[in-house]
Amino acid sequence: MKTLIVHAHPEPKSLNGSLKDLAVSTLEEAGHEVRVSDLYAMNWKAVVDATDYGPDASDPLRVARDSGRAFDAGTLTADVRDEQEKLLWADTVIFQFPLWWYTMPAILKGWVDRVFTYHFAYGVGEHSDTKYGERYGEGTLAGRRALLSVTIGGLEPHYCARGINGPIEDLLFPIQHGILHYPGLDVLPPFVLYGTDRMTADDYPEAAEAWERRLLALEATEPIPFRRQNSGDYEIPSLHLKEGVEPAGRTGFGLHVRASTTTAPGTPGAR
Q1: Cα 59 to Cα 50, 56, 78, distances in angstroms
Q2: Spatial distance between the Cα atoms of 71 and 113, rounded to a whole number of angstroms
Q3: Which portions of the chain are predicted below pLDDT 70?
Q4: What pLDDT does 267 receive?
Q5: What is the CATH number of domain 2-256?
Q6: Cβ atoms within 10 Å of 159's Cβ, excluding its own
Q7: Phi–psi pair at 127, nearest 5 degrees
C-alpha cells in the first residue's frame, strides 16, 4: 500500500507531530510506502492567487477557469503539481490535523484550495441530462481511500448529538463528503482523539496504541457508505435524493449516507 500523509500542525513536538511520526513508522514497518507533505515544514503557500496559474492568468482572475487551463497546459506551479502527483501515486491519503474553530487549519484548507484544481478534482466527466459529471464517488481520485486523524481539545460529550458543539459526524461532513468524497475518494471513519488539551505524557501510550490499531487495519476498514451521485439515488439534474431511499427518521447530512451495519475496527472513543 502507498500512503500519503498530509500533516498540518506548526509544532513538530506536538501530539499531531507524534501521531504523524507514528503513522510513518507503523506503516513502513508493515511494508508500506509512505510519503509525507508536512505543510508547515514546507512553508506551504496557503492562498490562491494569479501566480498559481502562470503568465496567462486572466484579468480579472477566474479561479476555476484559470486553474483548469493551467492544469490542462501543465503550467500550474511546481508545488501544486507535486502534490497532485502524490495524490495520484497514493492508495490511501491520511490527513493529520487539529480541529481549530470547527474545521481544519487554514494552511490545510489552502492546500485543498490550490491542489484540488478544476479538471483535476472537479469539473471532470460527462455533463448531460442523465449524468451530472463524475463526482461524489467518481472522478480523478476514485479507487483511493482517505482517513482523517483529528485531535480535539474539547471533551467527547461536547461532540455528540445533544452536545453543545454538535455531532462530530456533522462537523466533519463538509471535509469528508464535500472535499474528499467529491473527487472520488472513499472515506474511512475518522480517528478522533478528544480532550487533548488535558492529555499528559502518561495518556499518550493508550492513544498511540489505538492509532496503531487503526493504521494496521486500514485495508480491512469499510469506508463510510456515502451515496454515490450517479448510483441512482438522486434525481438528475436536480440532484435531490429520491423519496423513500433513506432510512426512516433520518434527516440532515445523514440522508446522504446509506444504511450500514459495519463499524471501523479499532475506532476509538477518545481524541
Answers
A1: 9, 9, 22
A2: 14
A3: 260-271
A4: 42
A5: 3.40.50.360
A6: 22
A7: -115, 110
Residue 125: other Cβ atoms inside 10 A:
17
| 171 CB neighbour count, 10 Å cutoff | 18
Cell numbers 507514528 label which residue?
Answer: 22
- How many residues in total does the chain contain? 271
pLDDT for 237 equals: 85
Q: How far is the first Cα of the chain from the last one, in angstroms, to the nearest whole number?
A: 26
For 119, the grid coordinates are 479538471
* Residue reference for cell 471513519: 189
Contact call for residues 119 and 66 (beta carbons, < 8 A)? no
pLDDT of residue 248: 79
pLDDT score at 246: 84
User: CA 237 from chain center: how many Å?
Assistant: 26
Cα 62 vs. chain centroid, distance in angstroms?
25
Task: Show me where the domains of the chain are located.
Answer: 2-256
